[in-house]
Amino acid sequence: MVLGASLGSLSSSFTGVRSATSWFEVYAAFSTLMMLIRTAINDMIPAQVRSFLLSKLKGFFSDRQNSRLVSLHINEFWDGQNNQLFQAAQEYLPAKMSHSYKSLKVGKLSKHKNLVVAVDGSQEVLDHFQNIQLSWNLLKETSNNDSDHHRPKSIGYEKRSFKLSFHENHRDLVMNQYISHILSTYEELLAEQKSIKIHSLGDGRCWQKSDLTHPASFDSIALDPDQKQAIIDDMDRFLRRKELYKKVGKPWKRGYLLYGPPGTGKSSLIAAMAHHLKFDVYDLELSSLYSNSSLKRALRETSNRSIVVIEDIDCNKEVLARSSTNACSDSDSDHVPKSFKVKTTRLTLSGLLNYMDGLWSSGGEERIIIFTTNHRERIDPALLRPGRMDMHIHLSFLKGKAFRVLASNYLGLEGDHPLFQQIDGLLEKIQVTPAVVAEQLMRNEDPQVSLKALVKFLQTKDKESIFLDS
């Protein structure tokens, strides 16, 4: 009866609403009605029944919502190999969402400058991409079944996988864009964290690697600023042109020839290029190879995003063994006299050329090959044409603009100095390498004393050159 009276009061309140007081009466009547309904339910329906009904209602709406979700399972291994997408997610999640993760593994490795973090635990992590929400979970399962061919065999192996869940309406966006976003972010993280290696063919059979500790950078090497910027621009343009190389049907590689007198900084420039690109360096000693097949095998084992260096190419007798009449083409010809033919079991120029622009060159991507020489005129012209050596970089004797870099590096001098003009004039008249001048600058810590000593040294060299010319 109380409930009926409240309903009647509420009905009459609605029909007579004409002022703020009337609206207040409606609100009071409605609140009283809701309290009475809740009391009636609590009195008439046992607690266990209420709990059962609530759970069914929650399950109903939850099932309807979950039925629109789809999941991707990203296993750690795929057919016995590391799954790169799992590795990418493992780096992506803590790097992008460490603020929302409640459990992270943290460590410090000897060759890493910063702390390293990794996902740990199975709690849900939310990510947002182009206004959609995605859910990540790390799943773990201990398995002793060695018959599982999707992982390496081991005892007590912990199978790990990521579960990526999202609304079914976003299936195409996730597959076509979000996963690509994770992989590209992973590559960027690797480039930032990468410890650059230098590889050498110690025994001519397998590459041996160590850290590239050469500290040279484009900020420290003594090059003319315009020449330095031209090199940087060329490398950056090469990096962003993957699709263009693919479109025109060319292997994604580029060749550089560094030439000039000894001591002009060829090795330092290579190190600076490696640090700028974040590329490993492969120091290829042709004298350690015995045939074209060994060259092919060695180059197949180089990685993408690498620099292959062949130093002093003009001194290698194997690749220079061609007809003295220059009658043959870039590859061995049947029309060349037998006395000029090179045995096919040995390393030949044609074998090297095949790597540079033949079928072998398609064995990897994002490669750079660098030749160095002190005498460009001694190199076979077939090695120098565009497509093989695309950019020729002349590293010459030290001049005024490049000297400013040495003065800044060794003496901490920025801007101008009273002795710079005199030094510039002497450098224009004599031939002296950056290595020789750098050695002179290291002999005194006081900038003024060091520059005066350098002026005296350069004046002596000038007198010597005048005496030799006379």
Automatic annotation (TrEMBL):
It catalyses: ATP + H2O = ADP + phosphate + H(+). One of its GO terms (molecular function) is ATP hydrolysis activity. Residues 252-399 form the AAA+ ATPase domain. It comes from Psophocarpus tetragonolobus (Winged bean). This is AAA+ ATPase domain-containing protein. Belongs to the AAA ATPase family. BCS1 subfamily. Keywords: ATP-binding, Hydrolase, Magnesium, Nucleotide-binding. It holds the Pfam family AAA_assoc. The keyword Iron-sulfur does not apply. PANTHER family: BCS1 AAA-TYPE ATPASE. Its cofactor is Mg(2+). The keyword ATP-binding applies. One of its GO terms (biological process) is response to stress.
